[in-house]
Amino acid sequence: MCADTHLQTCIRNNWWSIDTRIRGTKDGIKEANYGPNGFYIGMPSSRTVAVTSDDGAQTFELGFNIIGAAMRLWDREGDGPAQPASTGGPNNCSLGLTNSQAGNHSAMRMLLRRDGGEGAVACALHWLATNNYRMSEFDFTYKLTTPQPLGMRSGVYRGMTTYRIGGTGEGADFDLGNGVVLEDSIVNVHFELTVEHAFQLDLPPGSERAVLAPKGGWTQWSDHGIAPKSLEREVPFTLSSSGQFEVSLQCQHPLADGRCAIRNVTEGAEEVPLDIQLTLPGFHDSVTGVDVVGMPLTTTMVAPVLAADVFIVRRPSNLRFAVNGDAVRSMLDHPGSHYRGDVTVIFDASP
Q1: What is the pLDDT at residue 268?
Q2: Distance CA 163, CA 157 (A)
Q3: The sheet that has 305-307: what strands, in order across it?
Q4: So what's the pLDDT on residue 38?
Q5: Which residues in 146-287 belong to E strands, given as ranges?
Q6: What count of other Cβ atoms lies within 10 Å of the Cβ of residue 101?
Q7: How many whole angstroms separate alpha carbon 94 and alpha carbon 15?
Q8: CA separation, residue 36 to residues 30, 105, 124, 125, 179 (Å)
Q9: Distance CA 199, CA 185 (A)
Q10: What backbone phi and psi angles, to 5 degrees, belong to 126?
Q11: Higher-scoring residue by pLDDT: 284, 17
Q12: Exposed / middle / buried, residue 133 (Cβ in 10 Å: 0-12, 13-18, 19+)
């Protein structure tokens, strides 16, 4: 009904109608009682529809409310009144669209429910002239309540629900009253939701090389012989994300405990373990709920899936690389040496 003549009215009011392609006939009997012998539409209550990702990994629920319906009835022989239906307001509904001034032997009404589509309700005009009619259109309007996309992974989600259209006493979801004969009675409504999350990680120039050093420099060691407690480097970056993502670790020199190592490339010596920690303010582990503050990264961990409660844009974050404790002292036993190792931290925006 929102096509052509009524398009701009529907756009202004944010009404969206779907033509069900249900067609048929109705024998009307004039009774000024808003009853099923006239222009009558019974509408169903709200529904919950399951939508599942194409890979089958996630299922969510959406709410689907029928908030109105529209029908067009034509006097089949044109032998009745030019205005075949009541021009007053319907019961249980308000008028969205109407052709009450058309005078062309047809009755078209979009009936908008007053309950927001929550409970089952019947709406009707006061009367419809006695005659036989052709139903050339039957639409419904709806309200869709989708799942919160921040909690969904990127992908396509699909679902379906079925409505049955029929006459009074037939147990149909949409009841079109008495004297109805339809060519088809089933409407399948298919849903397809596409979730495309934003994800962007920005590293400053030079971040591909982390030079480890004591906090405050080497003065305490060179001047006083006091070994530093750690050699470390913090690599800052910014992160933007509207969805979940996974973080994992790969090492050039992996150790049995899951940590990466750096290796003395100058002379023979034991490798030393590297502790790696991730801090992402505003993000948490989606399973445990633990905030991502100093989260240890290892190759043996189950890669955590991280999430936020809001869309985060360019949040300052960091990776901390450190050699700690006895490992530092073992490095100091090899003055002039160079320790090196490659570490790869992987952010997977489609976990």
Answers
A1: 86
A2: 21
A3: 284-285, 305-307, 245-251, 343-348
A4: 97
A5: 155-166, 174-175, 180-182, 186-195, 199-202, 230-241, 245-251, 260-264, 272-279, 284-285
A6: 8
A7: 13
A8: 10, 20, 8, 10, 9
A9: 45
A10: -60, -40
A11: 284
A12: buried
How is residue 30 written in tokens? 């004039």
Residue 344 pLDDT > 80, yes or no? Answer: yes
- CA 132, CA 295: separation in Å to the nearest integer? 74
Token pair for 145? 């309540």
DSSP secondary structure string, 274-320? EEEEEE-TT-EETTT--B-SSEE--SSSPPPEEE-SS-EEEEEEEEE
CB–CB of 142/64 below 8 Å? yes
Q: What is the CA angle 158-160-161, rounded to 5? A: 155
Q: Tokens standing for 105? A: 């032997």
Q: Tell how many helices (H) and how many strands (E) occur in the chain.
A: 3, 24
CB-based burial label for 78 (10 Å; 0-12, 13-18, 19+): exposed
Nearest to 90 by CA among 26, 52, 40: 40
Bigger pLDDT: 16 vs 314: 314
